[in-house]
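Anyone opening a protein record will find just a pair of labelled lines. A complete record is shown below as an example:
=====
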Amino acid sequence: MKIDFYCEIKVNDDAKNKKYNGRTGVVLGISEENGITYGYSVVLHGENHTVYFEKNDVTPTGKQFKREDFY
């Protein structure tokens, strides 16, 4: 399942980058080529930078933000 821009995600407990397990953030970038999604660039709540996660390392929370919330 592809996650859209500005959707809130939760980093899965079994994510490869264990430093961020359980944290939430918002998708600001999508790594995609030829219709295949590889991962997401996510700004974690409380952080000023983005972190890359592979597509199976995050789960959408159902909350949707707007572009204006970030830019």
Q: What stands out?
A: The two ends are 26 Å apart (CA to CA).
